[in-house]
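<instruction>
Derive structure tokens from the sequence

<record> Sequence and structure tokens follow
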Amino acid sequence: MEKKGKQKKRSGPPPVLGNALEKDLRDWVIGMQRKGFPPTRDAGTIGRGWCDRIFKRFPELAIRNAQIIKRVRNGVEYNAVVNFFGRCARAIIEENAGPSRIFNLEERSFVQNLKTRKVIAVLGSKNVWSQNVEPGFHLTMVACVSADGFVMPPAFIVPGKRLKGDVLDACNIFGTTTTTSEAGFMTTDIMREYIAAFALAVPLPIKRPLILVLDGASSHMDASIDSEASTYGVRLVQLPPNASHFYQPLDVAAFRAVKTILKEQMYSFMIATGKAAMIKKEAVQLASTAWRMGIEEKLENIAADFEEAEIWPLSLPMMLRRLKTFKENDSKAQQPLPSWLVTQQVIRSEILVLPPAADKEARRRSVYVKRRLLTQDDLRNE
């Protein structure tokens, strides 16, 4: 029986690297994650068994699927978040607004960015591929919800100038609206119409003005949008640049469920019909089903999404904590990194260097082409 106060010794031979070096390796992994460069096993010199034993000795480490993000999505600034909080707080205080008057608007495209899919195949198959169904056009879904769970019927934007009746009939959600734009994206003209429809759709007992949180898309930022919003008693609050994945409730969770359901619906459609493409009517029908199952049947999640995005209840400390967690790549280890783990020094070899010597050769003079096809001999002779 192990005596109280004594640490249990591991069985077997000591680690090849030694306990101290393995702890240094653990600290390096944590540091790399916080910098946004979590290490991989791509070097090929690390065996599966060695990794498994390391994970057993350091249970705070594990294999995870890393989300590949663009540089701008990791460029959210502290001051931008503080300013956004100030805009929200000012609007809520000045209007004495509660959750029934705070809304979020988001647009999402009907597109799947699939590169691989896990499938069941015959053992030994070297090149397994799978078809994927995609519409041959861009379809935009527009959503708007409030912090107390009110959901405005969705709007669909399809490309073109005319709409067939079967496209309108494919919407199986009461109150759904459909319109067109040249490429199927939100435009300033459509946004003005949507602001008016949004204000009229919110029940009149709810006091005006309404507070609408939205991202900084160019179609939202035209001066005519502000004028239209003021006319209908809507106060716009813009999110910080590239921060919708932090503080936009619909982007944080709600649309994630819609995306998952839509993926399943599209796969079922492909299996049932044998088609790898769809027309506008079919796309709108699938999108409506995904909306109903992902949002309308899960209304209890809407308020939780606002809370997770720190919009309601509004909290600057929680907003900054959310930003800090993302900046540190969600590393759960709270201890500070050891002093020896510093950024690689490359000053002498890459920074404090002189420019190359100027080329001593005479610069070639230019030749007037005169719409000719010139050969090398022509260039030398002229």
